[in-house]
Amino acid sequence: MSDNALRIFPAERMNPEYPWTAWALGWLAFFRAFLWMAWEPVQAESVLGLLAYKFTLGMVPLVIFAVGVWNLRKWAVWGLIIVAVADLIFFVVYSQTLKAVVVDSEVYIYTMILSVITLLCNGPLGDLFILGAAPGLLKYEKNS
Questions:
Q1: Contact at 8 Å (CB) between 61 and 76?
Q2: pTM
Q3: What span, in angstroms and rounded, lies between the C-alpha atoms of 40 and 51?
Q4: Is the dihedral of CA 67, 72, 74, 78 positive or negative?
Q5: Does the pLDDT of residue 20 top 80, yes or no?
Q6: Cβ neighbours of residue 37 under 8 Å, at least 6 residues apart?
Q7: Which 8-state DSSP code applies to residue 106?
Q8: Nearest Cα to 23, choosing from 144, 140, 116?
Q9: Residue 29 contacts residue 81 (beta carbons within 8 Å)
């Protein structure tokens, strides 16, 4: 297989020199693409519709960027950075959607745990993680 071929799980990931941030950012992008389908927040229909468009349009690019990051491609890291910035702007412009990302449960510990997971995978915490980790990952990435 050529060095430029993209593989879903590249063999290099098992090397000790492989950057753990590439593995973490790839999984985060993958979870961001699909985790939103696992919960249904109690919000106004207009908010849910807006989030449905946002998450549906973002699925394919996030999966492509996840595989690209796992294969150490610069374009994928830049793509994740752009998606994270756009997502933060989305949450600033449509601040009412942030309530839909927080899970509400009668059991406080479930509320805390699930809210942290959804805020990390589909909310601003994940965006901040990407923006913090991605620039350091660029030194490991290949141009192709």
A1: no
A2: 0.82
A3: 11
A4: positive
A5: yes
A6: 55
A7: S
A8: 140
A9: no
